[in-house]
Specification:
This protein is mostly helical. The chain has helices spanning about 25-40, 55-75, 95-110, 130-150, 160-170, 195-200; strands spanning about 5-10, 120, 125, 150-155. The protein has a two-stranded parallel ribbon. A two-stranded antiparallel ribbon has the order 2-3. Strand 2 (about 120) and strand 3 (about 125) form a beta hairpin. The longest helix is centred in the middle third of the chain and has 22 residues, at about 130-150.
C-alpha cells in the first residue's frame, strides 16, 4: 500500500452560538473536510480508483457535490431525486461548485425550525435533524474514500465518533441485499472513529 505522503490539517469550526449537539455542526465539519480534500484533486489523480465500488476520484467528488445539493434543497421541499447521484461537473469546477453549494446549505438551514421539519430524503422522510446526521455520515465516508485514493493522512472531524454511532444505530447489519452497502467489516471496539464509521458501510480500513 502506498503510505500517505501528505497530512491534511483542518481547523474545524466550534459550536459558537449553536448547542454542542446541534446536527448542523457535524454537517459544517463534513463540509470543511470535503472542501479541503476536493481542493487537492487535479487531472493527475482524478482517475484513481477509490474504495467506493467502480467510482474513481472524480466520480466520488461529484457525488459529494450532489449530496450537498440535496441538503441545500431539502428545507424548501425540493425533490432529492432531481439531483443526479453523480452530477456532471467539469473537473476544474469541482472545488468552486462544492464551496458554492456549502454556502447554500448554510443559508438553507439557518432557521432552527428546519431541524424539526419532515424532510424528504432519498431513503425516506425523517426530521431535518436526523437527515443532517445521515448526510454528514455519507459525506465523511466518501471523504475517507477520497483520502485513501489520494494518499492523504487526514485530521477527522471531532464529530466522527457521533456519526459512527448514528450509522450503527440507523443502518442494520443484516438485510443489505437491496442496499448499496457491503457486509459489516469487523474492527476493534477501540478503533479510530473513522474506521468504525467506514467499516459499518462494508469498507475495510485495513485493505491494501
Amino acid at each position: 500500500m502506498t503510505l500517505p505522503t501528505t497530512t491534511l490539517e483542518i481547523t474545524y469550526v466550534e459550536a459558537g452560538p449553536l448547542p454542542a449537539d446541534d446536527p448542523r455542526l457535524p454537517l459544517a465539519h463534513a463540509a470543511q473536510l470535503a472542501q479541503a480534500i476536493v481542493a487537492r484533486i487535479d487531472a493527475d489523480v482524478a482517475g484513481r480508483p477509490t474504495p467506493c465500488g467502480d467510482w474513481d476520484v472524480v466520480d466520488v467528488a461529484r457525488h459529494v457535490v450532489g449530496i450537498f445539493r440535496r441538503v441545500a434543497g431539502a428545507p424548501s421541499g425540493a425533490d432529492p431525486h432531481a439531483v443526479p447521484v453523480v452530477p456532471d461537473i467539469a473537473l476544474p469546477d469541482l472545488a468552486d461548485s462544492l464551496a458554492e453549494v456549502a454556502a447554500e446549505v448554510h443559508a438553507a438551514w439557518t432557521d432552527p425550525a428546519t431541524l424539526d421539519r419532515p424532510i424528504d430524503a432519498p431513503w425516506g422522510t425523517a426530521p431535518g435533524a436526523v437527515c443532517l446526521l445521515v448526510w454528514s455520515c455519507d459525506v465523511v465516508v466518501h471523504a475517507w474514500d477520497l483520502a485513501r485514493a489520494l494518499d492523504l493522512e487526514v485530521e477527522w472531524p471531532p464529530s466522527t465518533a457521533l456519526l459512527a454511532d448514528v450509522l450503527r444505530s440507523g443502518l442494520p447489519a443484516d438485510g443489505r441485499d437491496e442496499l448499496p452497502f457491503g457486509d459489516v467489516v469487523a474492527v476493534a471496539a477501540d478503533a479510530p472513529a473513522v474506521e468504525r464509521l467506514v467499516a459499518w458501510t462494508g469498507r475495510d480500513p485495513a485493505a491494501v
